[in-house]
Amino acid sequence: MSDEREAPEVAIRRVDGREEIEACARLMAGSEPWITLGRTYEEAILMFGDPARGVYVADLDGAVVGFLILRLEGAFSGYLQSVAVAEECRGRGIGSRLVRFAEERILRQTPNVFLCVSSFNDRALALYRRLGYEVIGELRDFVVSGHSEILLRKTIGPMRGFRPPSDRRKE
Ligand SMILES: CC(C)(COP(=O)(O)OP(=O)(O)OC[C@H]1O[C@@H](n2cnc3c(N)ncnc32)[C@H](O)[C@@H]1OP(=O)(O)O)[C@@H](O)C(=O)NCCC(=O)NCCS
């Protein structure tokens, strides 16, 4: 198992411009689980360019080696929609770092982080479990027939009484 402390020095920042959106879309459309889920490059371009989503990239020496899509609004606010790392950079702690970045961002405004993982994506599910996520449901035949999306949640407490960590530090 990789150790996040030994991860290469990546900067996690907002996606910047068309070229980076295209790099993210290539990574998504060329990788599992999205190949099995039928996500096309064109659909990915629309997704990465959608201002309603928070798109962040992992930048390693100026190259985009990973991405993260966040949804902070909606029914399940605090939804980590997608995360990926370029194949040649996997297993070095970058993915864990992206997830931690998303958690820090989400937990500033809500005590829950939600995400879905495809039922065939065993290694990603193992990673999320190690990072403290709990399975809370199964959405059968949700994106494609024959596969489920597994809904996961990580929480720091109930919504009633939630205060952002920054408020708590002031006491
Ligand atoms: C899942 C993913 C983002 C993790 O990024 P990473 O930088 O490899 O993660 P880390 O180095 O922090 O942790 C490694 C762990 O990630 C998981 N992982 C590694 N390669 C993976 C792969 N190809 N697919 C899915 N999970 C993988 C494993 O649990 C691995 O631990 P292990 O080596 O003990 O099996 C990355 O592997 C990836 O982009 N996979 C393809 C896209 C994907 O599955 N995204 C998640 C969709 S919900």
The CATH topology:
Aminopeptidase
Which stretches of 5+ consecutive residues score pLDDT under 50? none
Tally the structural domains. 1
Strand fraction: 25-35%
Structural class: alpha+beta
First and last CA, distance: 37 Å
Mean pLDDT: 93
Sheet with the most strands: spatial strand order? 1-2-3-4-5-7-6
Helix content: 25-40%
Total beta-strand segments: 7
Q: What profile does the largest beta sheet have?
A: 7 strands, mixed
For CATH, the homologous superfamily is named as Gcn5-related N-acetyltransferase (GNAT)
The backbone outline, from C-alpha atoms, is globular
The small molecules bound here are:
coenzyme A
| Helix and strand run | EHHHEEEHEHEEH
User: What is the name of the CATH architecture?
Assistant: 3-Layer(aba) Sandwich
What's the alpha carbon Rg, rounded to whole Å?
16 Å
Number of helical stretches of at least 4 residues = 6
What does it look like?
The chain is globular. It has helices at about 20-30, 35, 40-50, 95-105, 120-130, 165-170, and strands at about 10-15, 55-60, 65-70, 80-85, 110-120, 135-140, 150-155. The mean pLDDT is about 95. It has a single domain (about 5-170), classed as Aminopeptidase (3-Layer(aba) Sandwich). Helix 1 packs across helix 3 (about 40-50). With about 170 residues, the chain is an alpha+beta fold. It starts with 10 loop residues before the first strand and ends with a helix. It has six helices and seven strands, in the order E-H-H-H-E-E-E-H-E-H-E-E-H. Bound molecules: coenzyme A (COA).
List the helices and strands and how they pair.
Layout: E1 11-14, H1 18-29, H2 34-37, H3 41-48, E2 54-60, E3 63-71, E4 79-85, H4 94-106, E5 112-118, H5 122-130, E6 134-139, E7 149-155, H6 165-169
Parallel strand pairs: 4-5
Antiparallel strand pairs: 1-2, 2-3, 3-4, 5-7, 6-7
